């Protein structure tokens, strides 16, 4: 099972929460889910500091903090903070179901305080099996329906409904970190499939790589490629607007990297010696299902 990217994303959330006084996004369950893998990933990153900071001559722990805060973590933290903020808004507007696409080691089910919200996590069978085992070992409680599936096969929609999802109820879908790794037609197919089971007024949230690339984005792409998850597409806003419209969705909100930094990083940066920002070349979108 190649779950490297999912584990690293979980580690970045855990490290930031553990080492920040005013975290951009505090994932209080991530370290527990990782267990011994937390230390293993931390050591691997420390040993590889030369790849990111070839001229760095300070303490390894200081170098690791720089690499995580300035290069690896910002996009993960920003999209997580944005998504869960949008989820809160949608719950206030009557959303009763939350679907996490390519859930990986997302820990919302362990942090959720709303018993009325139904959670569904979609991912490959072997990853969800590992996640279930990690939850049991950690002693945490998670209230969600794990739906083993391959999102490249649109039969996931039937499996979601079989798992208890109600297609006539207002829902919210998180598709974080997916658009990078799919060909454009496959991304559109996934959005269209979501539109086929989400009711009118439901919303989806996702991040995407823009046509402008930054050094941070380049590094992330290189790491993903090394992990066997090559980034395959970039989008302009107008291109995504047309794609979503074809699938029955309208863009309700779009935040570029500057807006993301202003909304979600300003509190952290007000007391940080080394400010961090959403990488240039990344955008976040909230889209609402406008028609059946």
Describe it for me?
The chain is of the alpha/beta class and 292 residues long. It has a single domain (74-289), classed as 3-Layer(aba) Sandwich (Rossmann fold). It has helices spanning 4-19, 30-34, 37-47, 49-52, 60-72, 74-92, 108-111, 125-138, 156-162, 184-197, 215-226, 237-246, 257-264, 266-270, and strands spanning 97-100, 118-123, 145-148, 171-174, 203-209, 249-255, 282-289. Strands 3-2-1-4-5-7-6 form a seven-stranded mixed sheet, with helices on both faces. Helix 8 (125-138) links the parallel strand 2 and strand 3. The chain is globular and about 55 Å long. The relative contact order is 0.15. The mean pLDDT is 92.
Write the layout of secondary structure elements.
Blueprint: H1 4-19, H2 30-34, H3 37-47, H4 49-52, H5 60-72, H6 74-92, E1 97-100, H7 108-111, E2 118-123, H8 125-138, E3 145-148, H9 156-162, E4 171-174, H10 184-197, E5 203-209, H11 215-226, H12 237-246, E6 249-255, H13 257-264, H14 266-270, E7 282-289
Parallel strand pairs: 1-2, 1-4, 2-3, 4-5
Antiparallel strand pairs: 5-7, 6-7
Helix pairs in contact: 1-3, 3-5
């Amino acid at each position: 099972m190649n779950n490297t990217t999912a584990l690293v994303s979980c580690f970045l959330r855990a490290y930031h929460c553990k080492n920040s006084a005013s975290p951009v996004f505090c994932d209080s369950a991530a370290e527990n889910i990782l267990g011994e893998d937390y230390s293993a990933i931390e050591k691997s990153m420390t040993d590889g500091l030369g790849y990111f900071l070839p001229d760095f001559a300070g303490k390894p722990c200081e170098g690791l903090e720089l690499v995580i805060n300035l290069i690896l973590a910002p996009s993960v933290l920003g999209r997580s903070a944005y998504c869960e903020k949008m989820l809160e808004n949608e719950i206030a507007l009557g959303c009763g179901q939350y679907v996490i696409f390519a859930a990986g080691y997302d820990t919302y089910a362990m942090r959720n305080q709303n018993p009325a919200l139904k959670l569904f996590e979609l991912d490959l069978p072997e990853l969800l099996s590992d996640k279930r085992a990690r939850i049991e070992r950690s002693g945490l409680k998670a209230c969600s329906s794990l739906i083993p599936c391959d999102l490249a096969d649109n039969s996931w929609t039937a499996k979601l409904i079989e798992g208890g999802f109600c297609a006539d109820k207002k829902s919210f879908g998180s598709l974080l970190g997916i658009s990078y790794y799919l060909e454009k037609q496959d991304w559109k197919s996934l959005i269209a499939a979501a539109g086929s089971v989400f009711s009118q007024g439901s919303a989806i949230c996702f991040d995407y790589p823009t046509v402008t690339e930054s050094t941070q984005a380049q590094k992330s792409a290189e790491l993903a490629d090394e992990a066997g998850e090559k980034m395959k597409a970039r989008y302009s806003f107008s291109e995504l607007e047309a794609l979503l419209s074809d699938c029955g969705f309208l863009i309700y909100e779009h935040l570029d990297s500057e807006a993301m930094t202003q909304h979600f990083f300003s509190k952290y940066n007000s007391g940080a010696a080394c400010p961090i920002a959403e990488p240039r070349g990344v955008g976040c979108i909230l889209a609402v299902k406008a028609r059946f």
